[in-house]
Design brief:
It comes from Celeribacter baekdonensis B30. This protein has 305 residues and is α/β, with parallel strands linked by helices. The chain is built from ten helices and 13 strands. Strands 7, 8, 9, 10, 11 and 12 form a six-stranded mixed beta sheet that branches. Strands 4-3-5-13-6 form a five-stranded mixed beta sheet, sandwiched between helices. Strands 1-2 form a two-stranded antiparallel sheet.
Length: 305
């Protein structure tokens, strides 16, 4: 295994490309190398590992379980090398570095934006990327090295031993409606009053969907039958603009949408019951040192939790 320390980045890239396309010839072509050279590199890699990385078959090359582990580490290594190259270039150009953050929707509005404003005031040339998505995608991205840290929930199937996990906050759900909705302005609305209305809500299994369903179950009420499933905020806004639908969103998003940014045409239901989502966490890789720019941003975020 000591020979693996001498592995070149191009060799790792070849393994990733074979795993992606499933054919040695296509992988070699995309890497601008001959098939015999690619075959020789793969043979040397498998010799050093002591086991096949791919199963050869009539339909192409399929990654073995050992190959999957190799691919996962290779992806992280290449991501690190790419990050190093980008940091060097940005520092040469007078920039401060790159920060890559993933987040579920709520903290992206409530915590990341104030932290971003504070960090940019000190380091105006910092290059920040914020990607919003579901926790399962964010955790996978962190595991693959695409993020420096994330705001997310840890899926039940995820081994969290490779992560440093900092507790953050629970999310509160608000129910958004248009200002002409029959429930607009009504005080102390109960869940039972919402049954007969149309809803637009995230797909089954999403945290907000689960929280809404749990609230109805805890109140002994059936869940509303008239539901349109969509995780697209644009679809939600379009439906709120034209229909008397109820749209559950995190408190932070609801405050933003019902404020002056959209002309004040949306509001929230004054709900008697409280709907909460399971807490999210600030998560980073236990074995990876944060670049200085990312560390500064991470520390600023922790001050706001």
């Amino acid at each position: 295994m000591a020979h693996l320390r001498q592995t070149k980045a191009t060799h790792l890239g070849l393994i990733l490309k074979i795993a992606e396309v499933g054919q040695l010839q296509k992988a070699a072509s995309s890497m601008a190398m001959s098939q015999p050279a690619a075959s020789r590199i793969l043979a040397d890699m498998e010799k050093n590992v002591g086991a096949p990385l791919f199963k050869r078959g009539p339909k192409g090359m399929e990654v073995t379980p050992l190959g999957m582990a190799f691919v996962r580490h290779a992806r992280v290594i290449l991501s690190e090398l790419d990050g190093l190259d980008k940091d060097v270039q940005r520092l040469k150009n007078g920039q401060a570095g790159e920060v890559r953050i993933g987040s579920v929707t709520g903290p992206a509005v409530s915590t990341l934006m104030p932290a971003l404003e504070a960090v940019r005031a000190r380091s105006p040339h910092i290059d920040v990327t914020i990607e919003v998505g579901p926790s399962v995608d964010l955790v996978r991205g962190l595991d693959e090295g695409r993020f420096d840290f994330i705001f997310a929930r840890i899926p039940a199937t995820q081994d969290s031993r490779d992560f440093l996990v900092h507790p953050a906050q629970e999310e509160i759900v608000r129910l958004i409606i248009r200002d002409s909705h029959p429930l607009a302005g009504r005080a102390n609305v109960r869940l039972e009053d919402l049954y007969d209305y149309d809803w637009v809500i995230q797909e089954r299994g999403s945290p907000i969907r689960l929280a809404v369903e749990e609230a109805f179950h805890s109140a002994g009420e059936p869940t509303p039958p008239r539901i349109i499933n969509s995780s697209s905020l644009l679809i939600v806004l379009a439906m709120l603009d034209s229909l008397d639908v109820i749209a559950p969103q995190s408190k932070e998003v609801a405050s933003l949408l019902s404020g002056p940014i959209l002309g004040g045409h949306l509001t929230t239901i004054d709900l008697a019951e409280k709907i909460t989502v399971s807490p999210y966490y600030i998560i980073r890789n236990r074995f990876k040192e944060l670049p200085q720019a990312a560390k500064d941003f991470y520390d600023e975020v922790l001050l706001r939790i």
